[in-house]
Amino acid sequence: MDQRGYVLAVERYPCTAVAVPEARAIAARAYAPHPWVDHDMVKLLVSETATNAVLHAGGGWFDLICHSPVGSSIQIELHDRSKSEPTRRVATAWDSHGRGLELLDVLAPGWFVVTTPTGKSLIFTLEATACPPDPTAPPPRSSRPTAP
Predict the structure, then answer these.
(1) Which helix (H) or strand (E) holds 19?
(2) What is the largest CA-CA distance in the chain?
(3) CB neighbour burial string for 3-17, b if at least 16 within 10 angstroms, e if fewer
(4) 148 CA to centre of own chain
(5) Which of 46, 54, 113, 136 has the maximal Cβ count within 10 Å?
């Protein structure tokens, strides 16, 4: 996605486990008015990236920024205080952790990390699962006959 939409939600969270469901809920509410956005995928990837910040950013806080749709895409950013790049882990079938970057690769290919003055930003883009409504299209016509 070349351009970001306006900010629908921005929130700062402490790097604690309770922040993960809070971030997921904010993202879910931000995209609720957009039915063509895959809300389950938004919640999953926000959970994964927020969990990574909580576990690996070294404390402090993280910021979640949800951008409005542009065309058929949305962009979400998660900023944390660590300058370290995310590292891939090889998770076995029995591991309960270590699949976050793999999920990003599959569900939001093209995600990237940008170093910032205060840490880093992990940015990912999701494509719509259905076409957004065309604001220039005429309203649908009713199939019911009208009274004379």
Answers:
(1) helix 19-31
(2) 71
(3) ebeeebbebebebee
(4) 51
(5) 46
CB 26 within 8 A of CB 64: yes
Q: Beta-carbon neighbour count of residue 122 at 10 Å? A: 24
Residue 61 neighbours by CB distance under 10 Å: 17
Burial, 93: exposed, middle or buried (Cβ in 10 Å; 0-12, 13-18, 19+)? exposed
DSSP designation for 15: S
Reduced to 3 states, what is the DSSP secondary structure of residue 21?
helix
In the block, tokens 């058929």 appear at 72
Q: What distance lies between CA 55 and its chain's CA centroid?
A: 18
Backbone angles phi, psi at 49, to 5 degrees: -70, -35
Q: What is the C-alpha R_g of the chain?
A: 18
Whether the full predicted model's pTM is greater than 0.85, yes or no, is no
